[in-house]
Amino acid sequence: MIVDNQNRVRCVIEYKKHTLPAPIDEHLMTQYYPEPDGRKYQRLNALAKRYENSFQTSVPLVVLYYSTKQPIIRLQEIGSLDKERATISRDTGNKLIRGLLEKKISDDVVSWLGVC
Q1: What residues contact 16, with CB distance under 8 A and at least 6 apart?
Q2: How far is residue 29 from each of residues 58, 64, 67, measured CA to CA in Å?
Q3: Which of 90, 86, 96 is nearest to 42 (CA)?
Q4: For range 62-73, the mean pLDDT
Q5: Is 64 within 8 Å of 73 (Cβ atoms)?
Q6: Does pLDDT of 68 surpass 90?
Q7: Using CA atoms, how far apart are residues 116 and 15, in angstroms rounded to an integer?
Q8: Which listed site, 5, 39, 52, 53, has its alpha carbon 20 to 30 Å from 69?
Q9: Rounded to whole angstroms, what are the CA distances from 44 to 41, 59, 60, 85, 91?
Q10: What is the mean pLDDT of the chain?
Q11: Residues 106/107/108/112 CA torsion (nearest 10 deg)
Q12: Burial grade of 12 (CB within 10 A; 0-12, 13-18, 19 or more)
């Protein structure tokens, strides 16, 4: 979770490590929903909705993919989730991070999340 300086939850993030040699594009969250990871994402979605109700503000559920094989990250915001499918409302696409300072990567992620 990302929490602001007033202790409000601003975002729920699922970190998804990508260890395969295949591109991240072939292993996005929607490939694994509803099977085999449906229950995990339903729980995360319920957590985000619980904080939305508590703080009366949008609390997006975001998947942050990072590769152990290539210097690539990707973020996807889950727009809706039901028992049959998940839809993605925002997607950075694959972002090459080779040669970028950690601060630059962090700033870009925070900016995309809209929590700065």
Answers
A1: 29, 63, 64, 65, 66
A2: 21, 10, 14
A3: 86
A4: 97
A5: yes
A6: yes
A7: 19
A8: 39
A9: 5, 11, 10, 15, 18
A10: 96
A11: 100
A12: buried
Give 52's contacts (C-beta < 8 A, 6+ positions apart): 58, 59
Task: Work out the number of other CB atoms within 10 angstroms of the CB of residue 50.
Answer: 13
pLDDT band at 74 (very low <50, low <70, confident <90, very high): very high
| Token pair belonging to 73 | 């990250």
Q: Which SS3 state, helix, strand or coil, does residue 112 take? A: helix
**pTM across the whole model:** 0.94
Query: Cis (ω within 30 of 0) for the bond into 34?
Result: yes
> For residue 38, how far is the Cα from the chain centroid?
15
Query: Under DSSP, is residue 67 helix (H, G, I), strand (E, B) or coil?
Result: strand
| Cβ proximity of 73 and 63 under 8 Å | no
| Alpha helix (H) residue ranges in the chain | 38-55, 102-113
Residue 112's CB is within 10 A of a number of other CB atoms, namely 16
Residue in the structure block whose two tokens are 């202790």: 7
